[in-house]
Amino acid sequence: QDLAVTAAKNAKVLLDNDKVRVIELQMAPGGKTGMHSHGDHVVYFVTGGEATQNNADGTSTKRQPKPGEVMWSGPVTHDTHNTGKAMVKAVIVELKAPASPP
Amino acid sequence: QDLAVTAAKNAKVLLDNDKVRVIELQMAPGGKTGMHSHGDHVVYFVTGGEATQNNADGTSTKRQPKPGEVMWSGPVTHDTHNTGKAMVKAVIVELKAPASPP
Q1: What is the ipTM of this complex?
Q2: Residues 41..100 of B with a Cβ closer than 8 Å to A: which?
Q3: Cβ separation of B15 and A98 shorter than 8 Å?
Q4: How is chain B split among helix, strand and coil, in percent rounded to 5?
Q5: Candidates A18, A21, A22, A66, partner chain B, best to mutate (most B CBs within 10 A)
């Protein structure tokens, strides 16, 4: 599932080319992205806050990023909830696999 | 030349792995990065502002990004000056060429 689809109005695709896709995610407290998948990606937290990610394998991960923090992740499937008291704003840079040579 | 070296105290490497390097650049008005090169990279402008880039080929490019704007660029060599009146803060995600197969 694609974050830009599952998170609908909370996600805005800022840039999409053959090498990267950049999504701005903004979620009010209580907001949920819906279960979605990423390949390799970088997350830059514009705001701090608290988010709980329910992973596809049933585990969950609580994050309390500070503003300006950066996170790397390999491929993952999760549903991200804003379990904090403030709007969370993050920018996700998804790397696209290099096109296989012809 | 490496931005993290030429821009010294104005540039902070936030993350560096085999696939990406993330640099936070903060420059006061009048600040300069020094001539440096990037490969493929994404720029996320945390603040808006005005910057003039003197390119290696002698041309120069004036940019007036808005906060939250994203820009893609292929390989480039330039010297970026903050020619505006406010601090400019940007996050640069540099893509590393995939390791050639053994």
Answers
A1: 0.91
A2: 42, 44, 46, 68-72, 91, 93, 95, 98
A3: no
A4: 5, 50, 45
A5: A22
Top residue of B21, B41, B42 to mutate, by most chain A CBs within 10 Å, is B42
pLDDT in tens, A34-76: 999 999 999 999 999 999 999 999 999 999 999 999 999 999 9
pLDDT at B99 over 90: no
Out of B15, B68, B70, the one facing A42 most closely (by C-beta) is B15
- B54-68 per-position pLDDT tens digit: 999 999 999 999 999
We find that the CATH architecture of domain A3-95 is Sandwich (2.60)
Domain boundaries, chain A: 3-95
